[in-house]
Amino acid sequence: MTAADHLAARVEGWARTRPDERAFTELRYRGAQCTPITMTYAQLHRAAGALAQRLRLVSEPGDRVAILCGHGLDYVAAFLACLYSDRVAVPLFPVTGSRNTARLDDVLADATPAIGLISGADAVTGPALGDAVGQMLSLPLDITASGADEPVIDTPGTELAYLQYTSGSTKTPAGVRITHVNLVTALNQLRGAIPATRDKPIVTWLPFFHDMGLVLALSLPLYSGVHGVTLAPQDFVKRPIRWLRACDEYGAGTTGSPNFGLSLAVTATTEHERAGLDLSELDVLLNGAEPIRAEALSEFTRIFAAHGFRHSAHTPGYGLAEATLSVTIAGQDDEPMSHRFERTALTRGRAEPLPAGARVDSGIALVGCGFPAGQRVAIVDPVARIERTDGAIGEIWVSGANVGAGYHENPAATADSFGATLTGSGERWLRTGDLGFLFDGQLYITGRHKDLIVVDGRNHYPSDIEATAGAAAPEVRAGHITAFGHDDGRREDLVIVAELTAGDLPDPTAVARRIRTAVATAHDVMPGTVVLVEPGRIPKTSSGKVRRGECRALYGSGRLPRLAVIGRNPPSR
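Given the sequence above, the corresponding C-alpha coordinates read:
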Protein backbone atom coordinates (compact mmCIF):
# COMPACT_ATOMS: atom_id res chain seq x y z
CA MET A 1 0.00 0.00 0.00
CA THR A 2 1.35 3.42 -0.93
CA ALA A 3 0.81 6.76 0.82
CA ALA A 4 -1.68 7.65 -1.94
CA ASP A 5 -3.96 4.88 -0.69
CA HIS A 6 -4.33 6.36 2.81
CA LEU A 7 -7.61 7.96 3.84
CA ALA A 8 -5.93 11.35 4.31
CA ALA A 9 -4.55 11.25 0.77
CA ARG A 10 -7.99 10.37 -0.62
CA VAL A 11 -9.52 13.44 1.05
CA GLU A 12 -6.69 15.61 -0.28
CA GLY A 13 -7.36 14.20 -3.76
CA TRP A 14 -11.09 14.98 -3.59
CA ALA A 15 -10.26 18.51 -2.37
CA ARG A 16 -8.04 19.00 -5.42
CA THR A 17 -10.35 17.48 -8.06
CA ARG A 18 -13.81 18.20 -6.58
CA PRO A 19 -13.24 21.11 -4.17
CA ASP A 20 -16.79 22.48 -4.10
CA GLU A 21 -18.70 19.21 -3.86
CA ARG A 22 -20.35 18.25 -0.58
CA ALA A 23 -18.13 16.05 1.57
CA PHE A 24 -20.03 15.80 4.85
CA THR A 25 -23.26 17.13 6.33
CA GLU A 26 -24.13 17.28 10.00
CA LEU A 27 -27.83 17.50 10.85
CA ARG A 28 -28.38 19.62 13.97
CA TYR A 29 -31.76 19.56 15.70
CA ARG A 30 -33.43 22.02 18.00
CA GLY A 31 -36.94 20.85 18.69
CA ALA A 32 -38.66 20.23 15.36
CA GLN A 33 -36.14 22.41 13.51
CA CYS A 34 -33.32 20.73 11.56
CA THR A 35 -30.32 22.78 10.43
CA PRO A 36 -27.96 21.01 8.01
CA ILE A 37 -24.31 22.13 8.26
CA THR A 38 -22.30 21.07 5.22
CA MET A 39 -18.59 21.13 4.45
CA THR A 40 -17.16 20.75 0.98
CA TYR A 41 -14.04 18.70 0.34
CA ALA A 42 -11.96 21.88 0.16
CA GLN A 43 -13.37 23.18 3.45
CA LEU A 44 -12.90 19.88 5.25
CA HIS A 45 -9.34 19.55 3.89
CA ARG A 46 -8.46 23.05 5.15
CA ALA A 47 -10.07 22.48 8.56
CA ALA A 48 -8.26 19.15 9.06
CA GLY A 49 -5.00 20.70 7.85
CA ALA A 50 -5.24 23.67 10.23
CA LEU A 51 -5.97 21.42 13.19
CA ALA A 52 -3.13 19.09 12.18
CA GLN A 53 -0.77 22.05 12.31
CA ARG A 54 -1.94 22.85 15.84
CA LEU A 55 -1.21 19.25 16.82
CA ARG A 56 2.31 19.47 15.37
CA LEU A 57 3.06 22.48 17.58
CA VAL A 58 2.15 20.74 20.85
CA SER A 59 2.91 17.05 20.30
CA GLU A 60 5.21 14.60 18.56
CA PRO A 61 4.56 12.13 15.71
CA GLY A 62 3.08 8.95 17.11
CA ASP A 63 1.61 10.67 20.18
CA ARG A 64 -1.90 9.58 21.09
CA VAL A 65 -4.71 12.12 20.70
CA ALA A 66 -8.05 11.54 22.45
CA ILE A 67 -10.99 12.71 20.34
CA LEU A 68 -13.56 13.94 22.85
CA CYS A 69 -15.57 16.09 20.44
CA GLY A 70 -19.32 16.08 20.08
CA HIS A 71 -20.82 14.03 17.26
CA GLY A 72 -20.61 15.87 13.94
CA LEU A 73 -18.20 17.84 11.76
CA ASP A 74 -15.83 18.61 14.66
CA TYR A 75 -15.30 14.88 15.05
CA VAL A 76 -14.68 14.33 11.34
CA ALA A 77 -12.08 17.12 11.21
CA ALA A 78 -10.42 15.90 14.42
CA PHE A 79 -10.00 12.34 13.15
CA LEU A 80 -8.59 13.53 9.83
CA ALA A 81 -6.23 15.94 11.62
CA CYS A 82 -4.71 13.01 13.51
CA LEU A 83 -4.15 11.16 10.22
CA TYR A 84 -2.74 14.30 8.53
CA SER A 85 -0.22 14.89 11.34
CA ASP A 86 0.85 11.27 11.98
CA ARG A 87 -0.70 11.23 15.44
CA VAL A 88 -2.52 8.17 16.76
CA ALA A 89 -6.22 8.94 17.19
CA VAL A 90 -8.15 7.58 20.18
CA PRO A 91 -11.84 7.95 19.23
CA LEU A 92 -13.88 8.61 22.37
CA PHE A 93 -16.77 10.87 23.39
CA PRO A 94 -17.44 13.98 25.50
CA VAL A 95 -18.51 13.86 29.12
CA THR A 96 -22.28 13.93 29.56
CA GLY A 97 -22.72 12.35 33.00
CA SER A 98 -21.02 10.44 35.80
CA ARG A 99 -21.63 7.06 34.19
CA ASN A 100 -19.59 7.72 31.05
CA THR A 101 -16.97 9.66 33.01
CA ALA A 102 -16.03 6.40 34.73
CA ARG A 103 -15.75 4.70 31.35
CA LEU A 104 -13.58 7.54 30.01
CA ASP A 105 -11.36 7.45 33.09
CA ASP A 106 -10.61 3.76 32.51
CA VAL A 107 -9.83 4.24 28.83
CA LEU A 108 -7.72 7.37 29.30
CA ALA A 109 -5.68 5.66 32.02
CA ASP A 110 -4.93 2.89 29.53
CA ALA A 111 -4.32 5.10 26.47
CA THR A 112 -2.41 7.94 28.25
CA PRO A 113 -3.05 10.46 25.46
CA ALA A 114 -0.78 13.50 25.16
CA ILE A 115 -3.58 15.65 23.74
CA GLY A 116 -7.37 15.78 24.01
CA LEU A 117 -9.59 17.47 21.42
CA ILE A 118 -12.96 18.91 22.47
CA SER A 119 -15.62 20.96 20.70
CA GLY A 120 -15.49 24.71 21.28
CA ALA A 121 -18.83 24.90 23.07
CA ASP A 122 -17.95 22.08 25.51
CA ALA A 123 -17.34 23.53 28.98
CA VAL A 124 -17.81 20.22 30.79
CA THR A 125 -15.38 17.60 29.44
CA GLY A 126 -12.11 19.41 30.24
CA PRO A 127 -12.85 20.10 33.92
CA ALA A 128 -14.49 16.69 34.41
CA LEU A 129 -11.42 14.79 33.18
CA GLY A 130 -8.84 16.91 34.98
CA ASP A 131 -5.29 15.80 34.29
CA ALA A 132 -6.30 12.47 32.70
CA VAL A 133 -5.26 14.05 29.37
CA GLY A 134 -1.90 15.75 28.91
CA GLN A 135 -3.23 18.89 27.24
CA MET A 136 -6.72 19.83 26.07
CA LEU A 137 -7.26 21.67 22.78
CA SER A 138 -10.59 23.25 21.88
CA LEU A 139 -11.66 23.19 18.25
CA PRO A 140 -12.79 26.55 16.79
CA LEU A 141 -16.56 26.96 16.81
CA ASP A 142 -16.39 27.67 13.06
CA ILE A 143 -13.98 25.06 11.81
CA THR A 144 -14.66 26.06 8.20
CA ALA A 145 -12.76 29.29 8.85
CA SER A 146 -9.62 27.62 10.19
CA GLY A 147 -6.40 28.67 8.50
CA ALA A 148 -5.49 29.83 5.02
CA ASP A 149 -2.22 27.94 4.51
CA GLU A 150 -2.09 24.96 2.18
CA PRO A 151 -2.72 21.85 4.32
CA VAL A 152 0.19 19.46 4.79
CA ILE A 153 -0.14 15.68 5.11
CA ASP A 154 2.77 13.97 6.85
CA THR A 155 3.98 10.64 5.57
CA PRO A 156 3.15 8.20 8.36
CA GLY A 157 6.28 7.32 10.30
CA THR A 158 4.27 5.00 12.53
CA GLU A 159 2.12 2.13 11.33
CA LEU A 160 -0.70 2.96 13.74
CA ALA A 161 -3.69 5.03 12.63
CA TYR A 162 -5.78 4.79 15.80
CA LEU A 163 -6.67 2.84 18.93
CA GLN A 164 -10.21 1.47 18.83
CA TYR A 165 -11.43 0.81 22.35
CA THR A 166 -13.90 -2.05 22.38
CA SER A 167 -17.18 -1.69 24.20
CA GLY A 168 -16.81 -5.28 25.36
CA SER A 169 -18.83 -7.17 27.96
CA THR A 170 -16.68 -6.16 30.95
CA LYS A 171 -15.40 -2.83 32.26
CA THR A 172 -11.76 -3.60 31.41
CA PRO A 173 -10.75 -1.36 28.47
CA ALA A 174 -9.07 -2.94 25.49
CA GLY A 175 -7.55 -0.67 22.86
CA VAL A 176 -7.18 -2.43 19.51
CA ARG A 177 -4.19 -1.21 17.50
CA ILE A 178 -5.52 -0.38 14.02
CA THR A 179 -2.91 0.38 11.38
CA HIS A 180 -3.26 2.43 8.21
CA VAL A 181 -3.13 -0.85 6.25
CA ASN A 182 -5.91 -2.31 8.42
CA LEU A 183 -8.16 0.72 7.82
CA VAL A 184 -7.64 0.89 4.06
CA THR A 185 -8.13 -2.88 3.77
CA ALA A 186 -11.40 -2.69 5.71
CA LEU A 187 -12.66 0.21 3.59
CA ASN A 188 -11.91 -1.65 0.37
CA GLN A 189 -13.58 -4.78 1.74
CA LEU A 190 -16.75 -2.78 2.38
CA ARG A 191 -16.60 -1.21 -1.08
CA GLY A 192 -16.22 -4.65 -2.63
CA ALA A 193 -19.06 -6.23 -0.66
CA ILE A 194 -21.46 -3.27 -0.89
CA PRO A 195 -21.37 -1.62 -4.34
CA ALA A 196 -23.80 1.09 -3.23
CA THR A 197 -21.06 2.60 -1.03
CA ARG A 198 -19.10 3.54 -4.16
CA ASP A 199 -21.54 5.97 -5.72
CA LYS A 200 -24.47 6.85 -3.43
CA PRO A 201 -24.69 8.83 -0.15
CA ILE A 202 -24.16 7.12 3.20
CA VAL A 203 -26.56 8.38 5.90
CA THR A 204 -26.27 7.21 9.51
CA TRP A 205 -26.79 8.01 13.18
CA LEU A 206 -24.09 5.59 14.35
CA PRO A 207 -21.68 7.07 16.96
CA PHE A 208 -18.26 7.86 15.52
CA PHE A 209 -16.38 6.48 18.54
CA HIS A 210 -17.79 3.02 17.82
CA ASP A 211 -16.03 0.84 15.21
CA MET A 212 -19.03 0.70 12.85
CA GLY A 213 -19.56 4.44 13.14
CA LEU A 214 -15.89 5.29 12.60
CA VAL A 215 -15.37 3.00 9.61
CA LEU A 216 -18.76 2.84 7.86
CA ALA A 217 -20.24 6.23 8.79
CA LEU A 218 -17.19 8.53 8.94
CA SER A 219 -14.30 7.02 6.96
CA LEU A 220 -16.06 5.19 4.12
CA PRO A 221 -17.90 8.20 2.61
CA LEU A 222 -14.63 10.17 2.57
CA TYR A 223 -12.68 7.25 1.11
CA SER A 224 -15.27 6.55 -1.61
CA GLY A 225 -15.91 10.21 -2.37
CA VAL A 226 -19.64 9.98 -1.67
CA HIS A 227 -21.68 12.40 0.44
CA GLY A 228 -21.65 11.49 4.13
CA VAL A 229 -24.62 12.59 6.25
CA THR A 230 -24.84 12.13 10.01
CA LEU A 231 -27.16 12.93 12.88
CA ALA A 232 -26.28 12.48 16.53
CA PRO A 233 -27.37 9.20 18.14
CA GLN A 234 -29.32 11.06 20.83
CA ASP A 235 -31.26 12.95 18.16
CA PHE A 236 -32.18 9.65 16.53
CA VAL A 237 -33.33 8.14 19.83
CA LYS A 238 -35.49 11.18 20.61
CA ARG A 239 -37.26 10.96 17.24
CA PRO A 240 -36.31 7.92 15.12
CA ILE A 241 -38.16 9.32 12.07
CA ARG A 242 -35.29 11.80 11.70
CA TRP A 243 -32.98 9.00 10.53
CA LEU A 244 -35.41 7.76 7.90
CA ARG A 245 -36.29 11.28 6.73
CA ALA A 246 -32.58 11.94 6.25
CA CYS A 247 -32.23 8.74 4.21
CA ASP A 248 -35.11 9.95 2.03
CA GLU A 249 -34.03 13.58 1.64
CA TYR A 250 -30.40 12.82 0.84
CA GLY A 251 -31.05 9.76 -1.34
CA ALA A 252 -29.11 7.35 0.85
CA GLY A 253 -27.85 4.20 -0.82
CA THR A 254 -26.42 2.83 2.43
CA THR A 255 -27.25 3.15 6.11
CA GLY A 256 -26.80 0.97 9.17
CA SER A 257 -28.48 0.07 12.44
CA PRO A 258 -28.47 -2.69 15.05
CA ASN A 259 -31.69 -4.42 16.11
CA PHE A 260 -32.70 -1.84 18.68
CA GLY A 261 -32.60 0.94 16.07
CA LEU A 262 -34.89 -1.02 13.78
CA SER A 263 -37.26 -1.68 16.68
CA LEU A 264 -37.30 2.01 17.63
CA ALA A 265 -38.11 2.96 14.06
CA VAL A 266 -41.09 0.59 14.18
CA THR A 267 -42.43 1.39 17.65
CA ALA A 268 -41.54 5.08 18.01
CA THR A 269 -42.70 6.48 14.66
CA THR A 270 -46.30 7.26 13.84
CA GLU A 271 -48.27 6.80 10.67
CA HIS A 272 -48.50 10.59 10.43
CA GLU A 273 -44.69 10.95 10.70
CA ARG A 274 -44.19 8.29 8.03
CA ALA A 275 -46.55 9.94 5.53
CA GLY A 276 -44.76 10.73 2.28
CA LEU A 277 -41.60 8.89 3.29
CA ASP A 278 -39.72 7.36 0.33
CA LEU A 279 -37.01 4.76 1.01
CA SER A 280 -36.88 3.36 -2.52
CA GLU A 281 -33.30 4.62 -3.07
CA LEU A 282 -32.01 2.67 -0.08
CA ASP A 283 -30.01 -0.36 -1.25
CA VAL A 284 -28.37 -1.42 2.01
CA LEU A 285 -29.36 -1.34 5.68
CA LEU A 286 -26.32 -2.95 7.27
CA ASN A 287 -26.95 -4.73 10.57
CA GLY A 288 -24.14 -6.20 12.64
CA ALA A 289 -26.03 -6.77 15.90
CA GLU A 290 -25.28 -9.71 18.17
CA PRO A 291 -27.38 -11.60 17.31
CA ILE A 292 -29.46 -10.31 14.40
CA ARG A 293 -33.13 -11.03 15.00
CA ALA A 294 -35.23 -12.26 12.08
CA GLU A 295 -38.28 -10.73 13.76
CA ALA A 296 -36.65 -7.28 13.86
CA LEU A 297 -35.96 -7.42 10.11
CA SER A 298 -39.45 -8.64 9.25
CA GLU A 299 -41.19 -6.05 11.43
CA PHE A 300 -39.19 -3.21 9.89
CA THR A 301 -40.09 -4.39 6.40
CA ARG A 302 -43.74 -4.81 7.34
CA ILE A 303 -43.98 -1.17 8.42
CA PHE A 304 -41.78 0.45 5.79
CA ALA A 305 -42.49 -1.63 2.65
CA ALA A 306 -45.35 0.78 1.94
CA HIS A 307 -42.70 3.52 1.80
CA GLY A 308 -40.53 1.85 -0.80
CA PHE A 309 -38.30 -0.19 1.49
CA ARG A 310 -37.25 -3.54 0.00
CA HIS A 311 -36.69 -6.52 2.30
CA SER A 312 -33.55 -7.32 0.30
CA ALA A 313 -32.03 -4.05 1.55
CA HIS A 314 -31.54 -5.72 4.95
CA THR A 315 -27.86 -6.68 4.82
CA PRO A 316 -26.75 -8.76 7.82
CA GLY A 317 -23.08 -8.87 8.67
CA TYR A 318 -20.67 -9.91 11.37
CA GLY A 319 -17.63 -8.02 12.56
CA LEU A 320 -15.64 -6.82 15.53
CA ALA A 321 -13.17 -4.07 16.42
CA GLU A 322 -10.26 -6.53 16.38
CA ALA A 323 -10.90 -7.01 12.63
CA THR A 324 -11.24 -3.21 12.13
CA LEU A 325 -14.92 -3.83 11.32
CA SER A 326 -16.35 -6.39 8.90
CA VAL A 327 -15.66 -10.12 8.74
CA THR A 328 -18.68 -11.35 6.77
CA ILE A 329 -21.39 -9.47 4.85
CA ALA A 330 -24.47 -10.74 3.01
CA GLY A 331 -24.87 -9.96 -0.68
CA GLN A 332 -26.23 -6.48 -1.38
CA ASP A 333 -29.15 -7.66 -3.50
CA ASP A 334 -29.84 -10.91 -1.64
CA GLU A 335 -32.81 -11.50 0.63
CA PRO A 336 -31.59 -11.99 4.23
CA MET A 337 -31.40 -15.72 4.98
CA SER A 338 -33.06 -17.08 8.11
CA HIS A 339 -33.24 -20.75 9.05
CA ARG A 340 -34.75 -22.48 12.04
CA PHE A 341 -32.35 -24.98 13.63
CA GLU A 342 -33.16 -27.81 16.01
CA ARG A 343 -32.67 -26.62 19.57
CA THR A 344 -31.43 -29.90 21.06
CA ALA A 345 -28.87 -30.36 18.28
CA LEU A 346 -27.46 -26.89 18.95
CA THR A 347 -26.95 -27.78 22.62
CA ARG A 348 -24.84 -30.73 21.39
CA GLY A 349 -22.71 -28.49 19.16
CA ARG A 350 -24.35 -29.24 15.80
CA ALA A 351 -26.57 -27.12 13.55
CA GLU A 352 -29.37 -29.21 12.06
CA PRO A 353 -32.31 -27.61 10.20
CA LEU A 354 -35.64 -28.17 11.88
CA PRO A 355 -37.44 -31.03 10.04
CA ALA A 356 -40.66 -30.28 8.20
CA GLY A 357 -43.66 -30.75 10.44
CA ALA A 358 -41.70 -30.31 13.68
CA ARG A 359 -43.00 -27.96 16.35
CA VAL A 360 -41.80 -24.43 15.66
CA ASP A 361 -40.86 -23.84 19.29
CA SER A 362 -38.46 -26.80 19.18
CA GLY A 363 -36.21 -24.78 16.88
CA ILE A 364 -34.22 -21.55 17.01
CA ALA A 365 -34.41 -19.01 14.16
CA LEU A 366 -30.94 -17.73 13.24
CA VAL A 367 -30.06 -15.17 10.57
CA GLY A 368 -27.15 -15.75 8.21
CA CYS A 369 -24.44 -13.10 8.50
CA GLY A 370 -23.16 -13.48 4.96
CA PHE A 371 -19.88 -14.51 3.41
CA PRO A 372 -16.24 -13.62 4.16
CA ALA A 373 -15.46 -10.09 3.00
CA GLY A 374 -11.98 -10.41 1.53
CA GLN A 375 -10.54 -12.53 4.34
CA ARG A 376 -10.44 -16.11 5.60
CA VAL A 377 -12.89 -17.39 8.19
CA ALA A 378 -12.60 -20.73 9.98
CA ILE A 379 -14.76 -22.51 12.55
CA VAL A 380 -12.36 -24.04 15.06
CA ASP A 381 -12.45 -26.42 18.00
CA PRO A 382 -10.86 -24.00 20.52
CA VAL A 383 -9.33 -26.80 22.59
CA ALA A 384 -7.97 -29.11 19.86
CA ARG A 385 -7.35 -26.11 17.55
CA ILE A 386 -8.54 -27.91 14.46
CA GLU A 387 -11.07 -26.72 11.89
CA ARG A 388 -14.57 -28.08 12.25
CA THR A 389 -16.76 -29.22 9.39
CA ASP A 390 -19.75 -27.26 8.06
CA GLY A 391 -22.65 -27.40 10.50
CA ALA A 392 -20.41 -27.96 13.53
CA ILE A 393 -20.34 -25.17 16.12
CA GLY A 394 -16.96 -23.79 17.08
CA GLU A 395 -15.04 -20.60 17.71
CA ILE A 396 -14.83 -18.15 14.81
CA TRP A 397 -11.24 -17.46 13.71
CA VAL A 398 -10.27 -14.79 11.18
CA SER A 399 -7.19 -14.16 9.05
CA GLY A 400 -6.67 -11.14 6.79
CA ALA A 401 -4.97 -7.78 6.34
CA ASN A 402 -7.88 -6.11 8.16
CA VAL A 403 -7.02 -7.88 11.44
CA GLY A 404 -5.58 -5.37 13.91
CA ALA A 405 -2.04 -5.37 15.29
CA GLY A 406 -3.00 -6.41 18.81
CA TYR A 407 -4.04 -4.70 22.03
CA HIS A 408 -2.39 -1.55 23.32
CA GLU A 409 0.20 -2.31 26.02
CA ASN A 410 -1.14 -5.82 26.59
CA PRO A 411 1.19 -8.41 25.08
CA ALA A 412 -0.39 -11.38 26.89
CA ALA A 413 -3.89 -10.63 25.58
CA THR A 414 -2.41 -9.88 22.16
CA ALA A 415 -0.68 -13.25 22.00
CA ASP A 416 -3.82 -15.06 23.14
CA SER A 417 -6.26 -13.39 20.71
CA PHE A 418 -4.12 -12.34 17.74
CA GLY A 419 -1.52 -15.11 17.74
CA ALA A 420 -3.67 -18.24 17.56
CA THR A 421 -2.46 -21.11 15.36
CA LEU A 422 -4.15 -24.25 14.12
CA THR A 423 -2.58 -27.55 15.09
CA GLY A 424 0.20 -28.34 12.66
CA SER A 425 0.27 -24.86 11.09
CA GLY A 426 2.25 -21.70 11.77
CA GLU A 427 -0.30 -19.30 10.25
CA ARG A 428 -1.53 -16.74 12.77
CA TRP A 429 -5.25 -16.19 13.28
CA LEU A 430 -7.48 -13.87 15.30
CA ARG A 431 -9.56 -15.71 17.88
CA THR A 432 -12.82 -13.77 18.07
CA GLY A 433 -14.25 -15.43 21.17
CA ASP A 434 -17.54 -15.80 19.29
CA LEU A 435 -19.22 -19.11 18.52
CA GLY A 436 -20.85 -19.95 15.22
CA PHE A 437 -21.07 -22.33 12.28
CA LEU A 438 -21.12 -22.36 8.51
CA PHE A 439 -24.28 -23.40 6.68
CA ASP A 440 -24.71 -23.12 2.90
CA GLY A 441 -21.58 -20.98 2.86
CA GLN A 442 -22.93 -18.34 5.26
CA LEU A 443 -21.76 -17.66 8.79
CA TYR A 444 -24.30 -18.02 11.60
CA ILE A 445 -23.58 -16.69 15.10
CA THR A 446 -24.69 -18.60 18.20
CA GLY A 447 -23.05 -16.54 20.96
CA ARG A 448 -19.87 -15.74 22.87
CA HIS A 449 -17.69 -18.60 24.08
CA LYS A 450 -17.26 -17.03 27.52
CA ASP A 451 -21.03 -16.45 27.81
CA LEU A 452 -21.97 -20.06 27.08
CA ILE A 453 -24.11 -21.50 29.88
CA VAL A 454 -23.52 -25.17 30.74
CA VAL A 455 -26.15 -26.79 32.97
CA ASP A 456 -26.18 -30.55 33.55
CA GLY A 457 -23.73 -31.06 30.69
CA ARG A 458 -25.84 -29.22 28.08
CA ASN A 459 -24.93 -25.98 26.33
CA HIS A 460 -27.37 -23.07 26.34
CA TYR A 461 -26.93 -19.81 24.45
CA PRO A 462 -27.82 -16.64 26.39
CA SER A 463 -29.34 -14.82 23.41
CA ASP A 464 -31.79 -17.68 22.83
CA ILE A 465 -32.89 -17.75 26.47
CA GLU A 466 -33.17 -13.95 26.53
CA ALA A 467 -35.43 -14.01 23.48
CA THR A 468 -37.74 -16.54 25.15
CA ALA A 469 -37.89 -14.48 28.34
CA GLY A 470 -38.70 -11.31 26.42
CA ALA A 471 -41.48 -12.98 24.45
CA ALA A 472 -43.04 -14.30 27.66
CA ALA A 473 -43.15 -10.94 29.41
CA PRO A 474 -44.13 -7.76 27.56
CA GLU A 475 -43.70 -5.96 30.90
CA VAL A 476 -39.92 -6.34 30.44
CA ARG A 477 -37.93 -3.73 28.49
CA ALA A 478 -36.91 -5.03 25.06
CA GLY A 479 -33.15 -5.60 24.85
CA HIS A 480 -32.74 -5.25 28.62
CA ILE A 481 -32.56 -8.92 29.59
CA THR A 482 -29.47 -10.95 30.37
CA ALA A 483 -28.96 -14.65 31.04
CA PHE A 484 -25.78 -16.13 32.50
CA GLY A 485 -24.46 -19.02 34.51
CA HIS A 486 -23.72 -18.69 38.23
CA ASP A 487 -21.61 -21.26 40.09
CA ASP A 488 -22.36 -21.25 43.81
CA GLY A 489 -19.68 -23.85 44.54
CA ARG A 490 -22.07 -26.77 44.24
CA ARG A 491 -23.48 -26.44 40.74
CA GLU A 492 -23.88 -24.11 37.79
CA ASP A 493 -27.30 -22.47 37.71
CA LEU A 494 -29.06 -20.45 35.05
CA VAL A 495 -29.79 -16.89 36.18
CA ILE A 496 -32.01 -14.43 34.29
CA VAL A 497 -32.05 -10.72 35.08
CA ALA A 498 -34.60 -8.44 33.39
CA GLU A 499 -35.52 -4.77 33.63
CA LEU A 500 -39.18 -3.91 34.04
CA THR A 501 -40.68 -1.07 32.05
CA ALA A 502 -41.26 2.19 33.91
CA GLY A 503 -44.52 2.54 35.81
CA ASP A 504 -46.45 0.57 38.40
CA LEU A 505 -46.98 -3.15 37.83
CA PRO A 506 -49.62 -5.15 39.66
CA ASP A 507 -47.40 -8.10 40.56
CA PRO A 508 -43.70 -8.25 39.49
CA THR A 509 -43.39 -11.68 41.08
CA ALA A 510 -46.00 -13.04 38.64
CA VAL A 511 -43.92 -11.67 35.75
CA ALA A 512 -40.79 -13.41 37.06
CA ARG A 513 -42.72 -16.67 37.51
CA ARG A 514 -44.03 -16.45 33.92
CA ILE A 515 -40.49 -15.97 32.59
CA ARG A 516 -39.21 -18.94 34.58
CA THR A 517 -41.98 -21.21 33.29
CA ALA A 518 -41.53 -20.13 29.66
CA VAL A 519 -37.76 -20.76 29.71
CA ALA A 520 -38.13 -24.12 31.44
CA THR A 521 -40.73 -25.22 28.87
CA ALA A 522 -38.83 -24.03 25.77
CA HIS A 523 -35.27 -24.95 26.77
CA ASP A 524 -35.74 -27.90 29.11
CA VAL A 525 -33.71 -26.15 31.80
CA MET A 526 -35.19 -24.64 34.96
CA PRO A 527 -33.73 -21.20 35.75
CA GLY A 528 -32.27 -21.29 39.23
CA THR A 529 -33.15 -17.63 39.75
CA VAL A 530 -35.13 -14.97 37.88
CA VAL A 531 -34.48 -11.42 39.08
CA LEU A 532 -36.49 -8.36 38.05
CA VAL A 533 -34.85 -4.95 38.44
CA GLU A 534 -35.71 -1.30 37.86
CA PRO A 535 -35.00 0.41 34.49
CA GLY A 536 -31.33 1.27 34.04
CA ARG A 537 -29.96 -1.33 36.47
CA ILE A 538 -28.50 -3.72 33.85
CA PRO A 539 -25.09 -2.43 32.74
CA LYS A 540 -24.71 -1.88 29.00
CA THR A 541 -21.88 -0.94 26.65
CA SER A 542 -21.65 2.37 24.80
CA SER A 543 -23.12 0.63 21.75
CA GLY A 544 -26.14 -0.70 23.65
CA LYS A 545 -25.01 -4.29 24.27
CA VAL A 546 -25.70 -5.88 27.65
CA ARG A 547 -22.57 -6.34 29.74
CA ARG A 548 -23.24 -9.94 30.81
CA GLY A 549 -19.93 -10.26 32.63
CA GLU A 550 -20.49 -7.13 34.70
CA CYS A 551 -24.08 -8.10 35.46
CA ARG A 552 -22.89 -11.55 36.54
CA ALA A 553 -20.35 -9.91 38.84
CA LEU A 554 -22.99 -7.59 40.37
CA TYR A 555 -25.28 -10.57 40.96
CA GLY A 556 -22.52 -12.71 42.46
CA SER A 557 -21.46 -9.97 44.87
CA GLY A 558 -25.03 -9.24 45.99
CA ARG A 559 -24.90 -5.68 44.60
CA LEU A 560 -27.78 -6.01 42.14
CA PRO A 561 -30.87 -4.18 43.52
CA ARG A 562 -33.99 -6.21 42.82
CA LEU A 563 -37.74 -5.74 42.73
CA ALA A 564 -38.73 -9.40 42.61
CA VAL A 565 -37.02 -12.79 42.78
CA ILE A 566 -38.25 -16.26 41.87
CA GLY A 567 -36.20 -19.34 42.68
CA ARG A 568 -33.04 -19.45 44.77
CA ASN A 569 -32.19 -16.27 46.64
CA PRO A 570 -29.33 -14.31 45.07
CA PRO A 571 -26.07 -13.93 47.00
CA SER A 572 -26.04 -11.15 49.58
CA ARG A 573 -23.29 -8.75 50.43
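Residues 41-58 form the longest helix (18 residues). Try to locate this feature in the C-alpha coordinate string yourself.
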